[in-house]
Amino acid sequence: MTSYKSKTIATWLALLLGSLGLHRFYLYGLGDKWAWMHPWPTLLGLYGVQRMDLIGQDDRLAWVLMPILGLMLVNATITGIVYGLNSDADWNAKHNPGQTIRPSGWAVIIAIVACVMIGGICLMSTIAFSAQRYFESQIESPAPAETPNPERPASPDKK
Questions:
Q1: Residue 151 region, left (φ>0) first, then alpha (ψ -120 to 50), else beta?
Q2: CA-CA distance, 3 to 61, in Å (whole number)?
Q3: Is residue 17 one of the residues assigned to a domain?
Q4: How far, in Å, CA of 114 to CA of 129, rounded?
Q5: Do the domain assignments include residue 82?
Q6: What is the pLDDT of residues 24-74, one digit of tens each?
Q7: pLDDT digits (tens, 9 = 90+) for 62-106
Q8: pLDDT, position 133
Q9: Is 80 exceeded by the pLDDT of residue 154?
Q10: Is 158 domain-assigned?
Q11: Calpha distance 140→86 (Å, rounded)
Q12: What distance in Å separates the CA atoms of residue 22 and residue 28, rounded to the nearest whole number?
């Protein structure tokens, strides 16, 4: 008989450490290939945070790496929401076949609310950070100056 996989624990793991794939390790074990895909982008994003702390806001590599961390955090919170919103019957059919249904309780609802709040903050912060860096990069590299055309007369306001 396999061990019981709690929806509550999986939801909280997705919220707290989901960007590292711990919720998938909990549900599917160490052999899960998708779980091993989570830590690498998260660590790259954390490296971007460290670079921005050490080098400053002009570090363009940090501009690319930090949104990756934000997207991994958003991915983890969305996964927590999906786990938590599964019905107990559907959850048991998928993760605990042949075992009795255990009701989830309020801990799952609290985790879902926390996932929505934290996920929304992470998503909006990532969008704002990326948009700000994009527009700053556009200002730093101005468009090439217009060269005068000898065949076209100058406009009256430029005299």
A1: alpha
A2: 44
A3: yes
A4: 22
A5: yes
A6: 999 999 999 999 999 999 999 999 999 999 998 888 899 999 999 999 999
A7: 999 999 999 999 999 999 999 999 999 999 999 999 888 888 899
A8: 86
A9: no
A10: no
A11: 48
A12: 10
Range(s) of the domain holding residue 65 = 7-138
Number of domains in the chain: 1
Residue with tokens 């990069």: 137
**Taking the complete model, does pTM exceed 0.90, yes or no?**
no
Distance CA 149, CA 151 (A): 5
Whole-angstrom Cα distance, residue 58 to residue 111? 37
**Residue-level pLDDT at 146:** 63
Task: Work out the end-to-end distance of the chain between its first and last CA atoms, rounded to an integer number of angstroms.
Answer: 89
Burial 125-135 (b: 16+ CB within 10 A, else e): ebeeebeebee
Residue 155 lies in a domain: no
Q: What is the DSSP string of 42-56?
A: HHHHHHHHHHHHHH-
pLDDT of amino acid 27: 95
Cα(55)–Cα(51) distance, integer angstroms? 6
d(CA 40, CA 28): 19
Q: What single letter denotes the amino acid at residue 102?
A: R
Rounded to whole angstroms, the Cα distance separating 36 from 85 reads: 25
CB-CB contact of 33 with 131 (8 Å): no
